[in-house]
Amino acid sequence: MKINHSKLFGNNRNYYDTYMEAVQNGKPVGILLKLAKDIGAPPALLARNVLEKHCEKHDPNVSRDEISKLFKDTTLIQDKDLSYEVYLCVLYDNLYGPIADAIGLSVGQEYELKLQNYLTERNLAFRNEEHLRTRGYDKTPDFKLEVPIAVNGFVINWIECKARFGNKEIHHKYIKTQFLSYWNRFGPGLVIYWFGYLDTLAEPSEKRFIIMDHFPDNITYMDPACVKPTT
After folding, report:
1. Do residues 36 and 89 make contact, with C-beta atoms less than 8 angstroms apart?
2. What is d(CA 179, CA 171) in angstroms, rounded to the nearest whole number?
3. What DSSP string runs through 157-202?
4. Under 8 Å between Cβ of 162 and 194
5. What is the pTM of this model?
6. What is the C-alpha to C-alpha distance for residues 163 and 142, in angstroms, rounded to an integer?
7. CB under 8 Å to 94, separation ≥6 — which residues?
8. Would you say residue 104 has pLDDT above 60?
9. pLDDT tens readout for residues 157-202
C-alpha cells in the first residue's frame, strides 16, 4: 500500500466525483466498497479520501482534525448516504481505519499482559510502563527488570513487547524512536516480536538488545550472593 498509495490517491484521481455520479445514477448501497475492490484499495483509505473531498467542497478551510473526527464517528457526517458509505468501509476494513486500530491496540494489550504473566510466573521483579512514567521517564519500555537476567549470556535489563511481525522498515523505526532511548537509560534489553521477524534483523554484532519471537525458555538469574560489594 505504501508503494501504491501515490498512484491510487494522487491529485489526478477524483473518486469523489465517481461516487457522486454513482449516487445520482441510483446505484445501490455499497458504492465505495465496490469502488475500493475495483481499484484495489483498502476501503477505509478510499472512504477517507472521498470524505476529505466532500468536506473540502463544503468548507475549503476544514481541518484534518475535523475530518478525522467525522471519520471516527460517521454519525456526525451530515450527508446520511455518505455517512453510511464511510461506515461500511470502516466496518469491512481489517487493516486500516478506527476499528482496525482498535483491534491492533487490543491485541497489543493482550500480549503485554501475556508477557507480564510470564514475568510473574518466573518470580522476576519488574516495573511496568505506567510506573516508570510516574518517575519522570518520557520514553519507557513495556517492562523494566528490577534485577537483570541473562539470556544466552546476554544481560537483559528491559523487555519491549511488539504484537506484530518485525520487518526491516518498522524495526529501524523502532530503533530510532524507542530502543536507543531504552538502551541509553537502562542498558541492554530484549525485544519480542510475537508474530515473528525477518532473520536479517538479528545482527550478531548488536550489543544494545537481542530479538526473539517468544519469551526465553532458559534464563539465568542473578545471584546477589555472588555480587561483591564495592568499597
Report:
1. yes
2. 9
3. EEEEEE-S-B-HHHHHHHIIIIIHHHHHHH--EEEEETT-B-GGG-
4. yes
5. 0.75
6. 12
7. 100, 103
8. yes
9. 999 999 999 999 999 999 999 999 999 999 999 999 999 999 999 8
